[in-house]
């Protein structure tokens, strides 16, 4: 069954564009790992980034965290984050775009 993840991360003041660039440049690499959708955006708060992911499975998502490009992106972004994350996992039951 497909796996979905929705989350936000708070960045250090003035670092949103830098972190967005890192997340967006690494987005193409997760397709081969089983990612069907990877959306990165911003809301009203200038220090928050929103991410929405749709994966073929939770296992595929977890395995993607071991890909060298993913690990590099995480390592580059982490110093610019505050450590404040909010996330929600779901088992996808269907809908537009669901595999």
Task: Describe the structure in your own words.
The protein has 99 residues and is an alpha+beta fold. The chain has a single domain, classed as Alpha-Beta Plaits (2-Layer Sandwich). The chain has three helices and four strands, in the order E-H-E-E-H-H-E. It has helices at residues 16-25, 58-64, 68-77, and strands spanning 3-11, 35-42, 48-55, 81-91. It has a four-stranded antiparallel sheet. Strand 2 (35-42) and strand 3 form a beta hairpin. The N and C termini lie close together (9 Å). The relative contact order is 0.31. The model has no long low-confidence stretch (mean pLDDT 94).
Question: In short, what is this structure?
Answer:
The protein is an alpha+beta fold. The chain has helices spanning 16-25, 58-64, 68-77, and strands at residues 3-11, 35-42, 48-55, 81-91.
Task: Count every helix, treating DSSP H or I runs of 4 or more residues as helices.
Answer: 3
Strand order in space, largest sheet: 2-3-1-4
The percent range for helix content is 25-40%
Structural class: alpha+beta
Q: What distinguishing features does this structure have?
A:
99 residues; Alpha-Beta Plaits; 4-stranded antiparallel β-sheet; 4 strands
Give the topology, please:
Blueprint: E1 3-11, H1 16-25, E2 35-42, E3 48-55, H2 58-64, H3 68-77, E4 81-91
Antiparallel strand pairs: 1-3, 1-4, 2-3
């Amino acid at each position: 069954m497909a796996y979905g993840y929705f989350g936000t991360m708070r960045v250090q003041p003035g670092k949103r564009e830098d972190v967005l660039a890192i997340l967006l440049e690494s987005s193409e690499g997760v397709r081969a790992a089983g990612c069907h959708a990877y959306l990165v955006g911003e809301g009203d708060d200038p220090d928050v980034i929103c991410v929405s992911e749709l994966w073929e499975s939770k296992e595929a998502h977890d395995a993607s965290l071991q890909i060298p490009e993913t690990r590099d992106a995480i390592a580059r972004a982490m110093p610019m984050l505050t450590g404040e994350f909010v996330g929600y996992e779901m088992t996808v039951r269907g809908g537009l775009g669901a595999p």
